[in-house]
Amino acid sequence: MAENPAYPVGLRLTGRRVVVLGGGQVAQRRLPALIAAGADIVLVSPEATPSVEAMADAGEITWERRPYADGDLANAWYALIATTDPEANTAASAEAEAHRVWCVRSDDADQATAWTPATGHSEGVTVAVLTTDARGRDPRHTAAIRDAVVAGLRDGTLVAPHHRTRTPGVALVGGGPGDPDLITVRGRRLLAEADVVIADRLGPRDLLAELPPHVEVIDAAKIPYGRYMAQEAINNALIEHAKQGKSVVRLKGGDPFVYGRGMEEVQALAEAGIPCTVVPGISSSISVPGAAGIPVTHRGVAHEFTVVSGHVAPDDERSLVDWPSLAKLTGTLVVLMGVDKIGKIAETLIAHGKPADTPVALVQEGTTAAQRRVDATLATVGETVRTEDVKPPAVIVIGAVVTVGPEALA
Ligand SMILES: C[S@@+](CC[C@H](N)C(=O)[O-])C[C@H]1O[C@@H](n2cnc3c(N)ncnc32)[C@H](O)[C@@H]1O
């Protein structure tokens, strides 16, 4: 005879007593969701894993350190039976049945009156996947379906349009250093929901190819503007499209607030009364060295790292960088936009006391298929950039951390 399918339901457990029998791995996996649901949880178990014990110490659950005893389920709304003692599990299961308490059994799904679905969350929605009957139970399959749905919702490959009115406005999204996998989940989702995307030259350009044909993609570098007017032209484009009621994503390389002029755009949008949300990104200043096997800090080697712009030379009156002070620091110096001026930067650092043999690495087009690392010292880097023809974009790392990683990673 075909078994009836389980009836799916969402239990609202706030303040309601839930009894968990057994403090092992099953409890450890299930308790966080019960805690998040606001349940009044009583754990009955002589022992518990360190994580479960920490939940009791934090007051998230009440732990009674003893084996199961008849009567434990009397006032419960829901029970999770997961002890290592089959007899106790059977007795507790019978008690749950007698008191009409829905109960999950970790050791015998057939005897349970409830099953825990494989669950995941995305943007205010819980995805819960159950198999239809106990005989067809395949927890790996349900978990795989849950993963596929949640991953698809998060990265935008599964598009579920919102039927509530979307708030038009601008999302300033940090796209990470270049590898399309290094954008945040939120950034990728907003990209998938956008009507218009205004993108920089740096960042995950490959993601633009995935956008549906109706999405208007604007290359920020090609917005017509006069000299020095680029940022204003971009601000205007953002404002105009948002005013037309469109969802606009401003896609930037790395993090929007690390040499990204992100706050200028936020300010312009605020002045125009346009709602704006900022999604942080993985900055090239840390991730590009890391991708080339260089940690910006390392125990016993560098206790600080300083990120600095090298777009103007140290002797340029527009420079805001205190190079003599930087020369005295013992930690790591990370220079962005510095390929053209690295010779002069190195000379200035040496002139102010930084040892000429300090290791330097230049990482060009980090995290992309074209990634390339070139090593030098402060004394040689100016010449090396020329002979090796290093081109922007590159992150330059100066300091002892350059040589701490295994060569295989470099
Ligand atoms: C205008 S700044 C923008 C930085 C960006 N907002 C961030 O957080 O990474 C551009 C500089 O970032 C660095 N850069 C960005 N992406 C890079 C990459 N994939 N590889 C090497 N350097 C990169 C280079 O120094 C480049 O000149």
Task: Describe this structure in a few short sentences.
The protein is 29% helix and 21% strand.
Task: Provide tags for this entry.
single chain, 410 residues, alpha/beta, Rossmann fold, Cobalt-precorrin-4 Transmethylase, domain 1, Methyltransferase, Cobalt-precorrin-4 Transmethylase, Domain 2, five-stranded parallel sheet, 12 helices, 17 strands, 21% strand, elongated, binds S-adenosylmethionine
End-to-end Cα distance: 63 Å
| CATH architectural category of the largest domain | 2-Layer Sandwich
Mean pLDDT: 92
Bound molecules: S-adenosylmethionine
The CATH superfamily title of the largest domain? Tetrapyrrole methylase, C-terminal domain
Class by alpha and beta content: alpha/beta
Catalytic activity: precorrin-2 + NAD(+) = sirohydrochlorin + NADH + 2 H(+)
Keywords: Cobalamin biosynthesis, Lyase, Methyltransferase, Multifunctional enzyme, NAD, Oxidoreductase, Porphyrin biosynthesis, S-adenosyl-L-methionine, Transferase
Family: Belongs to the precorrin methyltransferase family.
EC number: 2.1.1.107
3D architecture notes:
- This protein has 410 residues and is an alpha/beta fold.
- The chain has three domains: 17-116, Rossmann fold; 169-279, Tetrapyrrole methylase, N-terminal domain (Cobalt-precorrin-4 Transmethylase, domain 1, 3-Layer(aba) Sandwich); 285-409, Methyltransferase, Cobalt-precorrin-4 Transmethylase, Domain 2, CATH 3.30.950.10.
- Helices cover 29% and strands 21% of the residues.
- The chain contains twelve helices and 17 strands.
- A five-stranded parallel beta sheet has the order 3-2-1-4-5, sandwiched between helices. It has a five-stranded parallel beta sheet with strand order 10-9-11-8-12, with helices on both faces.
- Strand 6 and strand 7 (125-129) form a beta hairpin.
- Helix 7 (230-243) packs across helix 8 (262-271) and helix 11 runs antiparallel to helix 12 (381-387).
- The longest helix is centred in the middle third of the chain and has 17 residues, at 139-155.
- The radius of gyration is 29 Å and the shape is elongated.
- The N and C termini lie far apart (63 Å).
- S-adenosylmethionine binds at residues 177-178, 202, 253-255, 258-260, 283-285, 288, 336-337, 363, 365-368, 392-395.
